[in-house]
Write a sequence for this structure.
């Protein structure tokens, strides 16, 4: 239990996931969470589901908080930080999940040596299986490191990286769920093409991706070794692998991560100008 008061500024998809994770992990109680947003009817739904405090006034939410978590889109970050500026102080700390906005930019907007943590979670946080990387700004103390890690551990796995790596994290695990959805979709269609009913094909494709990822994780064995273990000489799998290799599956995925990383870097430069 952290027992801290937490403001979630912009309780949309990711903000709600964090509220759910924080409460499930019992890091703090619902009456110590303040969720803000622009639409009261949306916030009322959150209040009903989680019992948290709600407000359309970001300053009001931040005033109560030990930790202020920014869950708004990147282009709104400056506006919300300026709005909250007068109530923010250096005994609080800020965690941002906004893509591309650097700790340096946020530190300049808030001033007062307020600690800032920057993170890149992904959408799987919604089901507690997120992959989050976090990087620390220059005023963050060790105790705040631990708190930030605990918060994101409530919604999945956490790694701590230097801030210069966050664009690559965005290209890999931030955008990664979209790549895997395409793989699942294509495998479903493959099954359907070969005559499987769609619902059966869907169930098998999803479970195959989930089970394969879980096996890599729990066995701690390199995926290439696991692949070799299921590849019988002269069998079906080696024929499929040859097909995937001839269409460049691995190169395509490496290029996808690289190009998303480069785009993340470009967007970050624009946002922080
Ligand atoms: N979704 C992902 O996979 C993912 C992954 C990693 C990082 N992120 C980052 O997470 C952040 C949020 O993404 P999301 O997918 O959760 O978006 P979202 O569902 O649109 O949530 C953003 C929330 O911010 C609210 N908001 C807008 N302007 C506001 C203001 N001035 N003050 C307070 N709240 C305001 C929005 O309310 P209204 O709807 O009423 O406008 C909305 O509820 C983004 O910065 C994104 O880069 C997202």
């Amino acid at each position: 239990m952290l027992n801290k008061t937490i403001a979630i500024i912009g309780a949309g998809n990711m903000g709600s996931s964090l509220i759910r994770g924080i409460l499930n992990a019992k890091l703090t109680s619902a009456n110590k969470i303040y969720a803000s947003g622009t639409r009261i009817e949306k916030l009322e739904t959150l209040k009903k589901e989680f019992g948290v405090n709600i407000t359309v006034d970001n300053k009001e939410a931040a005033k109560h908080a030990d930790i202020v978590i920014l869950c708004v889109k990147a282009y709104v970050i400056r506006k919300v930080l300026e709005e909250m500026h007068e109530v923010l102080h250096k005994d609080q700390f800020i965690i941002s999940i906004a893509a591309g906005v650097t700790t340096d930019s946020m530190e300049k907007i808030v001033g007062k040596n307020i600690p800032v943590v920057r993170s890149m979670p992904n959408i799987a946080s919604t089901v507690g299986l997120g992959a989050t990387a976090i990087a620390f700004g220059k005023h963050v103390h060790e105790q705040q490191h631990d708190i930030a890690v605990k918060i994101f551990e409530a919604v999945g796995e956490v790694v701590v990286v230097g801030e210069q790596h966050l664009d690559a994290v965005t290209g890999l695990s931030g955008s990664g769920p979209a790549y895997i959805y395409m793989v699942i979709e294509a495998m479903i269609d493959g099954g359907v093409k070969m005559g499987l009913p769609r619902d059966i094909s869907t169930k098998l494709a999803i479970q195959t991706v989930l089970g394969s990822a879980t096996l890599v994780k729990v066995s701690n064995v390199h995926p290439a070794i696991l692949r070799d273990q299921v590849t019988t000489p002269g069998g079906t799998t080696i024929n499929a692998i040859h097909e995937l290799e001839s269409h460049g599956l691995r190169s395509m995925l490496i290029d996808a991560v690289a190009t998303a990383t480069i785009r993340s870097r470009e967007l970050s430069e624009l946002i922080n100008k």
